[in-house]
Design brief:
The complex is a heterodimer.
Chain A: H1 2-11, H2 15-41, H3 45-70, E1 74-77, E2 85-86, H4 89-98, H5 104-111, H6 115-123, E3 130-136, E4 141-152, E5 155-170, E6 175-181
Parallel strand pairs in A: 1-2
Antiparallel strand pairs in A: 1-5, 3-4, 4-5, 5-6
Helix pairs in contact in A: 3-4
Chain B: H1 2-24, E1 26-30, E2 35-40, E3 46-52, E4 55-63, E5 69-75, E6 78-86, E7 92-98, E8 101-109, E9 115-121, E10 124-125
Antiparallel strand pairs in B: 1-2, 2-3, 3-4, 4-5, 5-6, 6-7, 7-8, 8-9, 9-10
Classes of the chains: A alpha+beta, B alpha+beta.
Chain lengths: 183, 127
Amino acid sequence: MSNENYLTKLKGLPEPIKQFGGLISIIAFIFLTFFILNNIFGEGDELVAKMKAEEERIIQERKLNKLISSLPSGVLVSFDGTENFKLTEELYEAVCNATKLIPQRAIMGANFLNYRAHEIYTINGNKITETFVKWDKEKNKCFAGFVVSGKNVGVDETITVSGEALSFLSTGIDTRVYFIKNF
Amino acid sequence: MKMKKYVIAIILSLIIISSALARSTGCKEGNCENGYGKWVYTDKTTYEGEWVGTKKHGQGTETWPNGYIYRGEFKNSLWNGVGTLNFPDGSTYEGEWVNGFMNGKGTFTWSDGNQKTGIWKNGKLQE
């Protein structure tokens, strides 16, 4: 009985109020639907964490790009005894973190002390499977290396050559590992 | 019409860049066929020394842009014979070379002054 009264009261409401009520109901329905769908299919906290990590990565990349453009062009070294630009400890770490490339001469230089790596590298047309440049927090040093893999006398072989990255080349656009000390 | 202009501009810039590069590389001094000459490579590596039949042969110095410097004997364009390699950090290897690798008697001196002398085989000291 009370429900009928309630419906009658609603029907008796002015038309604009009824339309407004309808609009609110539709919006609430849409929100509710998305809320349910997000709970079922959405990644929730994981997605938020991913987005935050990506934002952080972009901020770091911008900082590194700013740093790279501020460096003098040419050879940057982490040791004394040369006329090249000497990196401070802080800059050394930053350049290490910003560097991704290892040019051919640095690879060839490191291969002087690793004949097998040299063989695979030349047999497979100077192909590098993977390169890495990492800052070692414990040792406070930058390490770089590369992986060569391929067939050598019919046998599949993979060799990782790594060592301390002691010098870099700054091109103004990027930085490259210039000397890997693996001895 | 605009597209045509862009294509022409790209071709022209490529020609200018390649001719500029060509001028900065190659035989810069002397005779790089038979005699004494200086050759500059595209990556700024240089070789200054003796040439026989367009090959590095005899005494010469090869300097890599990243700081490696080899001074000594060359055969068929490779480091062969007696020579010294200076590493970018100041370390050196002084001794015998075969086909671009430390092979034979040689002394390796680290930048901190430590030394190891012995027989080397393909870049490895034979203990």
